[in-house]
Amino acid sequence: KNDIPNLFGGGLVPEPKNSNSHLVIGSVEPSYQVTDNWKVATNYSFLYRSDNFYNQIEEQFSPAKTKHSVGASTTYAFSQTKSIELKGAHAWVEQETGALLPTNPISRIESVPPSLSYEVWTASIAANIRF
């Protein structure tokens, strides 16, 4: 899990300590209370990961990327204990191969993830009941 490709000599070499990526996450969600029961909101979030990262706890690879997300939501409260929320968002993602892995490798390395650019749409509905 701590070995990375050796681009110059082939094979795998131990990853240097503290070589994982830097991560910046930010979001803002201003809202407006239309009535006592109804609230609307917009949101924007930003994620930047500088390098590829392997999460040992989740045993999952996370690529270097930049993500912008814009969305809106509305919440209607039927009472103090019951509400329903609708959310929708659109995201733009630029996924890089990372600083330590070449974008245009000299020789084909199967373990190098591709650079990707894609868009994502999400929608959700949630019913909340407090007992």
Could you write a compact summary of the structure shown?
The chain is mostly beta strands. 0% of the residues lie in helices and 56% in strands.
Strand proportion, as a percent range, falls in: over 45%
Mean pLDDT: 81
**Strand elements, count:** 10
Sketch the topology as an H/E string, one letter per element. EEEEEEEEEE
- Could you say which structural class the secondary elements and strand pairing correspond to? mainly beta
Explain this structure to me?
0% of the residues lie in helices and 56% in strands. It has 131 residues and is mostly beta strands. Strands 3, 4, 5, 8, 9 and 10 form a six-stranded antiparallel beta sheet that branches. Strand 8 (65-77) and strand 9 form a beta hairpin. It is elongated, with a radius of gyration of 21 Å. The protein starts with a strand and ends with a strand.
Give structural attributes:
0% helix, 131 residues, two-stranded antiparallel sheet, mainly beta, six-stranded antiparallel β-sheet
List the helices and strands and how they pair.
Blueprint: E1 3-5, E2 12-14, E3 23-28, E4 31-33, E5 38-49, E6 53-55, E7 60-62, E8 65-77, E9 82-95, E10 116-129
Antiparallel strand pairs: 1-2, 3-5, 4-5, 5-8, 6-7, 8-9, 9-10
